[in-house]
Specification:
The chain has about 350 residues and is α/β, with parallel strands linked by helices. About 45% of the residues lie in helices and about 15% in strands.
Length: about 350
């Protein structure tokens, strides 16, 4: 229940496209055709009303590598980079393993929802050593789908202090009504000029193993610097089958995704109702997006190791330990609800039993 991909079969239209390509007798070097780029342009326009140009689109072999390459491209060793914990933990490594310094702008949990601490952000962005902020939009693990107002307020502070925003938008397709994902760069041009965005079909269509994601950078100077890193590392060719899978997903995925979101929303409801009825000691942060649910176990009074042991050794359920998501994560766990309902129910029942025994 921990790894962030789904326990659902990859859709047939992607499998069929990959099989068709596999029938071609040559698996050599290839290029991304115009139809590949057009599928991305059409998808973000259709789903998010975001107008992008072909030249803005770049390749990356996944969003974690892309964030690392952005750190390499747009900062220098010793520079400071802001992250907003509790947040997707590879962000921390992208900063520290590249010789940059982490600065925390911790999110605030109010009335069951995470929000930005803008006053703290203002104080930290005035430091000239701060060059970048890494944003999770929508937020992983808290499930907040940032509103236009929230994004504008954050972007305004960053622009005023010349802080570049790296926006991980991998969960943008996975948003529950009435919430609406807003690509940061789509708000207005000045924000776009200070933003490097990353999207991918990997979470949405369960094709993370295809290692194909996209950068969207309208600022020509930033785009050139990012592409130089791609060339330097010689990874721009990409995965032949990933090209086919991405195009098939974005061309044919609307109906499948709509059905998926309905199923996931039912799983969110199931989880919330089960916890409220049977495990009231646990508090669930109801997600506005993503298929990842953030659970507060702090009322059990266990330290992080005791909580890990309780779930893994006694409940036999593997979740993501909250402390790995940075400050604000102690006492929390992240559960992946993108699975058939019987599996989810089984996990919740096993958690219920060990909590009952603990009492």
């Amino acid at each position: 229940m921990w790894v962030a991909d789904m326990d659902f079969k990859t859709p047939d239209f992607i499998i069929d496209a990959v099989k068709e390509r596999a029938e071609h007798p040559v698996y050599g070097y290839t290029f991304r055709p115009d139809s590949y780029y057009q599928s991305i342009i059409d998808w973000v326009k259709r789903r998010n009303n975001w107008n992008i140009d072909k030249e803005w689109i770049g390749f990356c072999p996944g969003i974690v590598p892309a964030v690392n390459m952005a750190v390499m491209a747009f900062s220098n060793p010793g520079d400071k980079i802001i992250v907003q914990p509790p947040v997707y933990f590879p962000f921390f490594n992208a900063v520290e393993l590249n010789g940059r310094r982490l600065v925390y702008n911790q999110l605030q949990l109010k009335n069951g929802r995470y929000g930005f601490d803008l006053e703290d952000l203002k104080k930290k962005t005035v430091d000239p050593a701060v060059k970048m902020l890494i944003l999770s939009n929508p937020h992983n693990p808290g499930g907040s789908v940032w509103s236009k107002t929230e994004l504008e307020e954050l972007a305004t502070i960053c622009i005023e202090n010349n802080v570049l925003i790296i926006s991980d938008e991998i969960h943008g397709d996975l948003v529950y009504k009435p919430n609406k994902y807003i690509p940061l760069s789509s708000i207005y041009n000045e924000i776009a000029q200070h933003t490097v965005s990353f999207i991918a079909p990997s979470k949405t269509f369960n094709i993370a193993g295809m290692s194909s994601a996209s950068s969207i950078i309208s600022n020509k100077v930033l785009r050139q610097r990012y592409n130089e890193i791609i060339e330097q590392l010689h990874i721009g060719m990409g995965n032949m089958f990933g090209i086919v899978a991405l195009e098939a997903a974005y061309k044919n995925g609307d109906n499948w995704l709509n059905q998926l979101l309905e199923y996931l929303q039912e799983n969110v409801k199931l989880t919330q109702e089960f916890i409220e009825s049977h495990i009231p000691e646990i508090k669930m942060i109801k997600p506005e997006g993503t298929y990842l649910v953030w659970l507060d176990f702090s009322k059990l009074g266990l330290n992080n190791k005791e909580l890990d042991d309780l779930l893994i050794k006694k409940a036999k359920v593997g979740l993501n330990s909250g402390y790995t998501f940075g400050p604000g994560g102690d006492g929390f766990m992240r559960i992946n609800i993108a699975c058939p309902k019987p599996i989810l129910e089984k996990a919740l029942k096993q958690i219920k039993e060990v909590v009952k025994q603990l009492k």
